[in-house]
Write a structure and sequence with these properties.
Blueprint: H1 28-47, H2 49-58, E1 85-86, E2 89-90, E3 94-97, E4 103-105, E5 110-113, E6 123-124, E7 128-135, E8 147-153, E9 164-165, E10 170-173, E11 191-197, H3 221-227
Antiparallel strand pairs: 1-2, 3-11, 4-10, 5-7, 5-9, 6-7, 7-8, 8-11
Length: 229
Amino acid sequence: MSEYTRRAPETPNVPDDRNPPRKRKRGIGGTVFFFLVAASLVLFIAQNDGLRERVASLFEREPGEAVFPLPPEYGDSYTNDWGAPRSQGTHEGTDIYAPEGTPIYSITSGTITTAYGSNDDGWNTLGGYTVMIRADRDSGPVQRGDRLYYAHMSEPTPLEDGTRIEAGDRIGTVGRTAGEEPGTVADFPPHLHLGWYGGVGGLLGQEREYETAGSGAINPYPLLRQTIS
């Protein structure tokens, strides 16, 4: 070949758009591994007292106040009826009696959320119109993450899910609603049923000094006594 013979130009290494490279798909193995590591870490923290306290401190807020959920004149209109027999089983809460339309106030600061088993209006068969508030700070015996359940209200709460409220904010009115059909007025006296449910504190080894049930419910009677003392 002559030194003057031209060579064919080399073809640049350009991706062929007609046959794009396939993306590598991730399998479920990585996801499973991630959750196994996360679960192991949580278990390790829960079993290590010092580490548990340090992790808990990252989420601490200044303690808040806990207020009575009805006007003060109804501060003695309830008894310790925790565990009393009911048609659906034992009573997991405290009933506070007051005339229909009496304002209901949030015991703690927190966030409005729908109670389990309730529709968009907060209606469920046992509680009628209800609202649940997830506490966002420790308030008296209530711990951050606990949920307070207010039932038998006369109408749906005007507050939307996700609304943040302060202790003492009005969240509804006393009624006597319950039943299969939304809006049903039951034949019992008007009252507020207050339920108290523990949050994730158990994961960090926190213990409760009050009576509890397998459902996670805590007897709210001592809490109410503290708010009016």
